[in-house]
């Protein structure tokens, strides 16, 4: 019996018992994201009629955009209490989170830190970090497929996630909230770690100053175990202003400043001694029966990340047809790691007669890194309405980025303090034996640029043709390179004002690391790694927005992949070879929202992805990692309108993913002949909320059935187990 096919039905049965059925409420507001009011109902799900200007940098209805988009708005973020962007991705068709990492997977491709954008800018997770915290953001826009034309170099053609910050508003409002959680980390079990967070969100006109609005956001969070050494402490502050410079409000400037610090306990994976410990031993099985428990932390120490961002956005409406935009960001990011890391090579059974006597050693190390990024983005658009039936918009833009990167390191200590992986008991206390002084490495500097042109022509409000191209380049201390022209094409046909069909061709380019050597020992000789994607789809809303749906079919491939070659006599440090082929992904995505009553809506998503690596000859090789062939979600929310429960809102959600290959970081992993296969899983979430005048209350439960499954891992030495059942209680007040 194939249990992986039965699990989705079981999950849906659990979820269906949570939500009642009742009458209608007031009309839903499906416009711009607003703060959630639990006494009123708002439809969740991507609405084809909504306007989006994030993904393709020209305002357009989702219905008129020739690409697959998923929009998670402020209502959904608040209702499901999403804490990090990683929490969102498993609800987006075609995307998959990577167990808390800043890397994520989209359409079978492993995306990097620059594929997270904040208001169009990279840098929030540059150099490696945790998945971005969502406090201070009002919208998450997931663009599937290549994004190279408008945003420059991209590691893979799978997609891009844009986080939209909360902006100053004209209506005055102050909200304060307190959130308590029972679980907030990757190394502790239910009830063994708690977290407490205080939040402030204030906006409105600046007193005594005409035409100036402000937005102040602040958050302080503490998470702690019963052992103080594993405490977390996180802070976030952002202040922004919106100033209408002229009386006609044609020019507006929005300066901002932001600082955050994440002081987090060192995370670690679970270890399963009886599971395959290498990717080359012919075994693909795993077991959680003998894995180290989630409430045992084998690693120790902490990492402190500091982020400082400042800059401005300038919008100019020069005429009814002509507009211009400019934005500047300076981002300074540092991290310092002081940790005791598990040395998996030291795993051993201390007593052959005792199956629970497996121990592993830890090693002390200190590292650090400083990143500085200065990014400028400018564009101007002009619209011509030459005839009644034709409208043409042309946009010219450019973005430039200078990045400085400095590493710090010190000596690494000796193996010490063997710890039992099941009980957490150590043979001796840990000793800080790495030098406290960090040695600064050399400064690495790189300049990147992307110049683009896009044109959109609408004929009789039915046919929309999009043409765009860009030129990508970079410069380091040793080499200057460019990609050539990156083209994009799109065609949309509106069958009606509510239904469209579309097709598109999109591309991405990545300029290889300039220090990589080829077989002849030369650097800077490799061609760009190119991504290209073909996509067709349908977007529609029916019956006065009762039903909204998007269906897309795609074929995406990555060519010119660099593969590391082993060292030999002629190449003591190894070298790289460039394949003509690379990963390929084909599949279908569906997002379907139905609101039969104005007080009840349900969103379904489904993705089928056949993603695989290709050999040098182009033949099908191994399955792409962390990409289930089938994945589905259901999220439903209902507001009670009648009776003594009037005003309460309840919701439930289900995530189901098919079996998938354990994580591999390489964009082409044909050498991984026996990967660890991760079983299918099902997670059920639920929650409820209520507003009492100016007060609001919300309770969320993640992993309601307390399922124990794997999110990731390539061997039994780095298993990433799912979070156990977790409760989140939020109380807030708004003035």
Task: Kindly describe this structure.
With about 725 residues, this protein is mainly beta. The chain has one domain (about 5-735): TonB-dependent receptor, beta-barrel domain (Maltoporin, Chain A, Beta Barrel), CATH 2.40.170.20. The protein has a 22-stranded antiparallel β-barrel. A 4-stranded mixed β-sheet has the order 3-8-9-7. A 3-stranded antiparallel β-sheet has the order 4-5-6, with no helix packed on it. A hairpin with a 4-residue loop joins strand 22 and strand 23. The protein is globular, with a radius of gyration of 26 Å. The termini are far apart.
Write the SSE topology.
Blueprint: H1 3-16, E1 51-52, E2 60-61, E3 69-73, H2 74-79, H3 85-89, E4 95-96, E5 104-106, E6 109-111, E7 116-118, E8 137-144, H4 148-151, E9 159-165, E10 173-181, E11 193-205, E12 212-225, E13 232-244, E14 251-265, E15 300-317, E16 322-349, E17 358-387, E18 390-409, E19 415-420, E20 439-459, E21 463-475, E22 480-494, E23 499-510, E24 529-542, E25 547-559, E26 562-565, E27 575-578, E28 584-597, E29 600-614, E30 620-623, E31 630-639, E32 649-657, E33 660-661, E34 677-678, E35 681-692, E36 695-702, E37 710-712, E38 720-721, E39 726-734
């Amino acid at each position: 019996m194939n249990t992986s096919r039965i699990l989705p039905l079981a999950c849906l049965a659990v979820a269906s018992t949570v939500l009642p059925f009742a009458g209608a409420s007031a009309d839903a507001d499906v416009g711009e994201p607003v703060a959630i009011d639990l006494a009123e109902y708002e439809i969740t799900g991507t609405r084809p009629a909504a306007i989006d200007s994030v993904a393709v940098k020209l305002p357009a209805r989702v219905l008129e955009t020739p690409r697959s988009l998923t929009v998670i708005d402020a209502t959904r973020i608040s209702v499901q209490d999403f804490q990090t962007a990683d929490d969102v991705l498993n609800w987006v068709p075609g995307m998959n989170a990577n167990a808390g990492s800043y890397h994520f997977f989209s359409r079978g491709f492993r995306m990097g830190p620059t594929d997270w954008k904040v208001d169009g800018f990279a840098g929030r997770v540059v150099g490696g970090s945790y998945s971005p915290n969502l406090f201070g953001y009002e919208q998450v826009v997931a663009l599937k497929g290549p994004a190279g034309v408008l945003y420059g170099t991209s590691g893979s053609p799978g997609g891009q996630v844009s986080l939209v910050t909360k902006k100053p508003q004209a209506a005055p409002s102050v909200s304060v909230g307190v959130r308590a959680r029972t679980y907030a980390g990757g190394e502790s079990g239910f009830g063994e770690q708690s977290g407490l967070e205080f939040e402030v969100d204030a906006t409105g006109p600046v007193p005594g100053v005409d035409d100036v609005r402000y937005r102040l956001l602040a958050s302080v969070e503490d998470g702690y175990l019963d052992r103080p050494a594993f405490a977390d402490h996180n802070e976030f502050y952002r202040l922004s202003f919106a100033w209408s410079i002229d009386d006609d409000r044609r020019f507006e400037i929005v300066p901002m400043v932001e600082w955050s610090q994440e002081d987090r306990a060192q995370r670690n994976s679970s270890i399963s001694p009886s599971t395959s410990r290498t990717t080359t031993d012919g075994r693909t099985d795993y077991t959680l029966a003998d894995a180290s428990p989630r409430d045992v932390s084998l690693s120790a120490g902490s990492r402190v990340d500091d982020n400082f961002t400042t800059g401005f956005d300038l919008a100019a409406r020069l005429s009814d047809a002509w507009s211009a935009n400019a934005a500047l960001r300076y981002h300074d990011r540092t991290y310092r790691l002081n940790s005791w890391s598990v040395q998996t090579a030291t795993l051993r059974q201390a007593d052959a007669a005792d199956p629970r006597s497996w121990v592993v050693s830890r090693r002390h190390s200190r590292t650090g890194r400083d990143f500085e990024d200065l990014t400028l983005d400018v564009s101007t658009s002009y619209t011509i309405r030459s005839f009644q039936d034709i409208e043409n918009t042309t946009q010219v833009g450019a973005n430039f980025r200078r990045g400085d990167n400095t590493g710090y390191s010190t000596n690494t200590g000796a193996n010490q303090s063997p710890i039992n992986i099941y009980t957490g008991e150590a043979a001796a206390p840990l000793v800080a034996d790495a030098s406290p002084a960090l040695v600064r490495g050399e400064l690495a500097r790189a300049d990147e640029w992307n110049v683009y042109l896009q044109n959109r022509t609408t004929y009789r409000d039915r046919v929309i043709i999009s043409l765009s191209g860009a030129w990508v380049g970079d410069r380091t201390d040793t080499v200057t390179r460019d990609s050539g022209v990156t083209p994009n094409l799109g065609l949309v046909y509106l069958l009606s004002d509510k239904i469209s069909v579309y097709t598109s061709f999109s591309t991405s380019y990545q300029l290889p690391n300039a220090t990589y050597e080829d077989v002849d020992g030369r650097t800077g000789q490799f061609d760009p790694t190119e991504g290209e994607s073909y996509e067709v789809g349908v977007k529609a809303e029916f019956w006065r927005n009762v039903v909204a749906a998007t269906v897309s079919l795609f074929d995406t491939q990555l060519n010119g992949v660099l593969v590391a070659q082993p060292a030999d006599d002629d190449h003591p440090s190894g070298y790289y070879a460039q394949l003509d082929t690379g990963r390929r992904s084909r599949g279908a995505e569906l997002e379907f929202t139905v609101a039969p009553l104005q007080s009840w809506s349900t969103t379904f998503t489904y993705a089928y992805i056949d993603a695989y690596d290709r050999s040098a000859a182009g033949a099908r090789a191994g399955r792409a990692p962390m990409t289930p062939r089938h994945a589905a979600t259901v999220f439903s929310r209902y507001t009670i309108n009648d009776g003594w429960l009037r005003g309460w809102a309840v919701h439930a959600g289900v995530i189901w993913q098919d079996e998938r290959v354990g994580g591999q970081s390489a964009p082409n992993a044909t050498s991984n002949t026996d990967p660890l296969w991760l079983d299918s899983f099902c997670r059920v979430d639920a929650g409820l909320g209520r507003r009492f005048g100016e007060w609001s209350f919300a309770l969320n439960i993640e992993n309601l059935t307390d399922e124990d499954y794997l999110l990731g891992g390539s061997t039994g030495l780095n298993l990433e187990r799912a979070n156990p059942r977790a409760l989140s209680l939020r109380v807030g007040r708004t003035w």
